[in-house]
Design a protein that fits this description.
15% strand, globular, Rossmann fold, 6 helices
C-alpha cells in the first residue's frame, strides 16, 4: 500500500510531460504531487518548504547550465530522493554508487511506468521489502 503522505515534486517545461508523469504516480496511488514549469518555482518550493520533498522528478534540460543538478540534489537536505530524466542530452556524469539510492538518472526522454515503479520500491518499499532489507 503506497504511503499517501509522500511529497513529490515534478519539474518540466512541458505541461504535457508534467501531467503525464503525474498520472503515472496517480496510477500507483500517489496523489501528493506538485507539478511546476520552471527552475525558479522548483527552487523556491524546495528551499522554502516546511518539510523536505520525498522525491523530485526533474527534466535535466530544465537547469540548462544554470544549476549543477547533481550537486544541488546531493547536498540538499530538503530533497530525500531525485530522479533526473533526459540525462543523456544534458551530458550528466555518472553518479557514484554510494549516491545512487538518493539520485537516479534516466536517459529516457520521459520516465515511464516501470521506471517510476522501480524508483518507488526504493523510496516507498512494501513492508515485505523493508523486512528483507533489514534481515539481510
Amino acid at each position: 500500500m503506497p504511503n499517501k503522505a509522500l511529497r513529490i515534486l515534478i519539474a518540466d517545461q512541458q505541461h504535457f510531460h508534467r501531467m503525464n508523469i503525474e498520472r503515472l504516480f496517480n496510477q500507483l496511488g500517489y496523489y501528493r504531487v506538485a507539478p511546476v514549469q520552471g527552475l525558479a518555482p522548483m527552487l523556491t518550493l524546495i528551499e522554502y518548504g516546511c518539510e523536505p520533498f520525498d522525491l523530485v522528478v526533474v527534466n535535466a534540460a530544465l537547469a540548462a547550465g544554470e544549476l549543477d543538478v547533481l550537486g544541488y540534489f546531493l547536498n540538499n537536505r530538503q530533497v530525500r530522493h531525485a530522479l533526473i530524466f533526459d540525462g543523456q542530452r544534458a551530458h550528466l556524469p555518472p553518479i557514484p554508487a554510494c549516491e545512487q539510492q538518493k539520485i537516479q538518472v534516466s536517459h529516457a526522454a520521459l520516465p515511464d511506468l516501470p521506471c517510476i515503479q522501480r524508483l518507488m520500491t526504493i523510496i516507498d518499499p512494501s513492508p515485505q521489502e523493508r523486512d528483507q532489507r533489514y534481515a539481510g
